[in-house]
Design goal:
Elements lengths: L2 H31 L2 E2 L4 H4 L2 E7 L4 E7 L2 E6 L2 E4 L2 H12 L2 E2 L2 E3 L2 H6 L8 E7 L4 E10 L5 E6 L5 E5 L3 H4 L3 H4 L13 E8 L2 E8 L2 E4 L8 H12 L5 E3 L8 E7 L4 E6 L7 E6 L5 E5 H7 L9
Antiparallel strand pairs: 1-6, 2-3, 2-8, 3-4, 4-5, 7-11, 8-9, 9-10, 10-11, 12-13, 12-16, 13-14, 15-19, 16-17, 17-18, 18-19
């Protein structure tokens, strides 16, 4: 190969390398100028079975069992509010623009993206496979955005704060404390209430309600509002065990023949009642104020 041919080949290689280098610079600058991505791809979330959420003071662990999420606490899987977990995942799946703000160790310290100051969301798949390890730092000066960083990278991004809402949640925030997950007022045909001072029975009649044993007119709006409070009600907390005695009972007889029952134990020294619900194996803890809203005397419904 003569000298001239060698020069031509080398010149062509240099030209190709120059073009490649320019393309890399262009693509990298474009990525830095407008980096749009999701923190967690939907395909990765399909493998997820554990979510660890580290807040400023709390660690909440969510576990997926048979496609249902549970709050794992003290060795027990409590029912988790599925819609809340879905909202978290939607925020992580959402493709957004996250500009790079810094890369230095000093910036990580200053922006709260180091152990001890950062909040954190970790997601694992089967056998502990790491799918996401996201650090959430301090908000920006306007308070609308927050600084973010993947645990295995140096780049610090900023983006709309969709995550602090979840990392600041306590176990109560994640726990599904509702008595009944789904039921409507129209499904209830009869209500039987037993209290320490007596019992009464409400049943549908036409478009209203009547109370057994009395001819007094019933305030339909009060019954409907109270019934909605029962069907949409929730406890202050869930636990295990059960009350030693049952003091009060509400039985909702549904149109499909099923019954929904709430059994309340006596008040204790800290004004908390243990309550059993027919749809759950857990014990619901109710404040005295919540108990009084649910377990009404019959006179409450009379006009």
């Amino acid at each position: 190969m003569n000298f001239k041919k060698k020069v031509t080949i080398l010149s062509a290689l240099v030209a190709v390398l120059a073009i490649v280098y320019i393309l890399i610079l262009f693509l990298e600058s474009d990525r830095r100028r407008d980096p749009s991505f999701a923190w967690l791809e939907a395909s990765n979330f399909a493998m997820a079975d554990t979510i660890e959420i580290y807040g400023k003071n709390d660690l909440n662990v969510l576990r997926r069992i048979n496609d249902t999420w549970f709050l794992y606490e003290d060795g027990i899987d409590y029912p988790a509010r599925q819609s809340r977990v879905e909202d978290l995942i939607a925020s992580l799946n959402r493709k957004e623009v996250y500009p790079i703000r810094a890369v230095s160790a000093e910036a990580r310290e200053r922006l709260g993206l180091v152990d001890g100051s950062a909040s954190r969301i970790r997601i694992h798949g089967g056998a502990g496979l790491p799918l996401l390890d996201l650090l959430i730092g301090i908000p920006d000066t306007m308070g609308r955005q927050v600084f973010l960083k993947s645990a295995d990278r140096n780049e610090i991004y900023s983006g709309e704060d969709r995550f602090t809402f979840f990392t600041e949640g306590t176990s109560v925030f994640w726990m599904d404390r509702r008595f009944f997950a789904s039921a409507s007022i129209a499904d209830v045909q009869q209500i039987e209430v037993s209290l320490p001072l007596g019992a009464y029975n409400l049943r549908r009649s036409g478009g209203g309600w009547i109370m057994q044993g009395t001819s007094d007119e019933i305030d339909v709006s009060r019954v409907d509002s109270w019934l909605r409070g029962i069907l949409e009600g929730e406890a202050e907390y869930l636990t295990t065990g059960s009350p030693e005695t049952i003091e009060s009972t509400i039985t909702l007889r549904m149109g499909d023949g099923q019954n929904k029952v709430i059994l309340a134990g006596p008040d204790n020294e800290i004004s908390i009642r243990q309550v059993l619900v027919s749809d759950s194996s857990f014990t619901y803890l109710l404040s005295e104020a919540t108990y009084n809203r649910l377990f009404r005397e019959s006179s409450y419904f009379l006009r």
